Amino acid sequence: MVKKTVVVLGVDGYLGWATALHLSRAGHDVVGIDSLVRRRWDRECGTQSLIPIKTMPQRVSLWNRLTGRTIRWRLLDLRDAAAVTELVRDVQPDALIHFAEQRSAPFSMIDLEHASLTQVNNLVGTLNLLFALRDYAPHAHLIKLGTMGEYGTPNIDIEEGFLTITHNGREDRLPFPMQPGSFYHLSKLHDSHNIQFACRIWGLRATDLHQGVVYGNHTDEVAMHPGLATRFDYDAIWGTVLNRFCIQGALGLPLTVYGKGGQTRGFLDIRDTVACVRLALEHPAAKGEYRVFNQFTEQFSVKALAQKVSDARAAHGLKTSVVHLPNPRVEREEHYYNAKHQKLLDLGLQPHYLGDTLIESVIETVERHATRVDPVELEQPNVDWRRGGTAGWHQRAESPIRPVVLVSPTSKPRRPSSAAVASRVAQRR
Amino acid sequence: MVKKTVVVLGVDGYLGWATALHLSRAGHDVVGIDSLVRRRWDRECGTQSLIPIKTMPQRVSLWNRLTGRTIRWRLLDLRDAAAVTELVRDVQPDALIHFAEQRSAPFSMIDLEHASLTQVNNLVGTLNLLFALRDYAPHAHLIKLGTMGEYGTPNIDIEEGFLTITHNGREDRLPFPMQPGSFYHLSKLHDSHNIQFACRIWGLRATDLHQGVVYGNHTDEVAMHPGLATRFDYDAIWGTVLNRFCIQGALGLPLTVYGKGGQTRGFLDIRDTVACVRLALEHPAAKGEYRVFNQFTEQFSVKALAQKVSDARAAHGLKTSVVHLPNPRVEREEHYYNAKHQKLLDLGLQPHYLGDTLIESVIETVERHATRVDPVELEQPNVDWRRGGTAGWHQRAESPIRPVVLVSPTSKPRRPSSAAVASRVAQRR
């Protein structure tokens, strides 16, 4: 393996941190960048990571103590063009892994302010990067985190970025037609178009990872020490569906399916995310190439996922109920879905498929941190695609500091009883 | 005809002003909005309209004196969300014609600052409108000026916005795959996706006019009085190709073709622009419908246009030369191009096709205002797609005020001699 100098943008995030550790351990020289804005958004939304996470300086210094490896940490806002230019000029990276975007669909749908913030933040940061690369590191490989959500749910097979189309007797290979489902997903599509254009006119090289929904919270590196934990979101704004189901299952709460639950998406284990990024890094795009990898390993419908969590609980004699809530999103609830995901397999990806063991390990993590669960976050979605954020989306004015949950740290199991949860839910209403 | 209350956003611009007059004369109640930023950008770029234009208050008051009709003029920046909300709430429009965007591809390619400004300005303004419509005028019809440049130059026929695709035995009607060619064109594509999404989730109604390159400077209304003139750009940043050729032809300068000149695009007369907008207005999209009309009447290659201008001059015994300059853009110079443009014809559009008469009338206008021509603007493109703005793109530091061109106002013809132009060009070097 050739050692590369890699900038991980968004290193304080769920996947950014795990990726930085994975690449550092693999021997690459990692520079980690973040504005820490996600911690501020947590305060705004009244949300927090289920698993406590250390500050960036604490985490990189612990990593250094444990492994002898250095991650160079820099506080930097990607919207600051001069700072981005200086970063690229100084570091002269071989590659940049770009996670540094607002990444929640519900957050982008709260209201105009959040829609606009999401699109401007994501576009401007990426434009700043593209121009800095053109001027100071035109050979560097940009690895951009996109989303499978750019495609939407067309009634044809989803290819990896491009599609050969025959029309009126002529043929061309063209960008796959896209139908994103939120202002966040749209921001990723806007980025994709901008990056593709920059590759075409400036000869930059980029890999757009159209990623599915990630689950899990452990990679080999994160698991080395509790102080290396990466964040784990379960709330209605930042959490993803499988993580939410595991928490609901662990607490004995019903699993909340939005609408009919026939919504089908691509999913992957966080261990595969870090492996995919490394594969893209070690097999770079060619000069002038813009390529798309669909980054997921399996497709599931939401109701199939709920069933899997129920089944894993049933194996321990626990009964889990599933409730269908009115869908806060505007999306098809029964649809065709068949998305290709061959390119990363061709590069050597060894998938971790979703099994009971993973679900149980997530549930076990939840139980360990059960005192940090805010059950109100698990009840109802608090952002509606049609009307925006409902009263409960942000830090509640009447209780700016979340009440301490009174569960004895010595009680076994730490999982609060359904009755305790119900009583806490009642208190918060 | 049902009288409609219509907001024209970007009413101070080349097409916005002509459209406002056309709709006002047709009996609609017109509210005209502009931030006047274009006049500021002219100062920044050292450019100006060939035809002198009055201030907005002067123009609307003259219109009122001449016709008895009122255009309600408001100074407003579309990026100001609160002002946009108030506008929509107060006016309760039946329709909004949205021209209020940065609309120059070269301007967007000057540097990072201008790329970012273009995309943020255009996206944020349109997002502000979409949310204001959702909340205060969900039945209003948004008529958005897009561009044929969103499509790029695919090797298949270009349809109007959507394409039925058969793939692996399944079929869907999907957005046409897009490949825009500048950060400006990309901004229009981003808007298109945002608008399409807003129609889908909020039931808004929108028409996206994917317009070709507009030429000409007279409509029936603009022609009523010199004080009603609309702007006419010929420089390398704001001007379009046919207008530039007409000015070059009028001044006896060579016509400057970028590259091979096989670049083929859709074109239309400004009289057809105002007619198309009126057709869209009077035949609105349905609730929840996002539709695309390709708004042009004829296709030409750049070299064919140069030939047309040469031919029109030759009919008067004048010889015009054509020079090929290195192409400052990154684009195909020989390609297939066949774009559909049936929907506006189906609604009743009566095209004004490009003929010698039009070219001669433009040339005659140029001659009338020849003293205002800055020949340096006609020489070389000053923004390069690969490297950005060259030294000459902005107001030249050494001559912040353009020199007065000493051509006697009584000389006939007013057209400066080639020798005079050559000497002025030399002075400016």
Q: What do these coordinates show?
A:
- The structure is a homodimer of 429-residue chains.
- By secondary structure, chain A is α/β, with parallel strands linked by helices.
- Helices cover 38% and strands 18% of the residues of chain A.
- In chain A, the strands form 5 sheets. In chain A, strands 3-2-1-4-5-8-12 form a 7-stranded parallel beta sheet, sandwiched between helices. In chain A, strands 9-11-13 form a 3-stranded mixed beta sheet. A two-stranded antiparallel ribbon of chain A has the order 6-7.
- The longest helix of chain A has 25 residues, at 112-136.
- Chains A and B meet through helix 6, strand 6, strand 7 and helix 7 of A and helix 6, strand 6, strand 7 and helix 7 of B.
Topology, element by element:
Two copies of one chain form a homodimer.
Chain A lengths: L4 E5 L4 H12 L3 E6 L2 H9 L10 H12 L3 E5 L5 H11 L3 E4 L6 H4 L3 H25 L4 E7 L14 E6 L2 E6 L7 H20 L2 E7 L1 E3 L25 H10 L4 E4 L5 E6 H13 L7 E6 L2 E4 H13 L7 E4 L17 H4 L9 H13 L7 H4 L3 E2 L3 E2 L28 H11 L1
Parallel strand pairs in A: 1-2, 1-4, 2-3, 4-5, 5-8, 8-12, 9-11, 10-14
Antiparallel strand pairs in A: 6-7, 11-13, 15-16
Helix pairs in contact in A: 1-9, 4-6, 6-7, 8-10, 8-12, 10-12
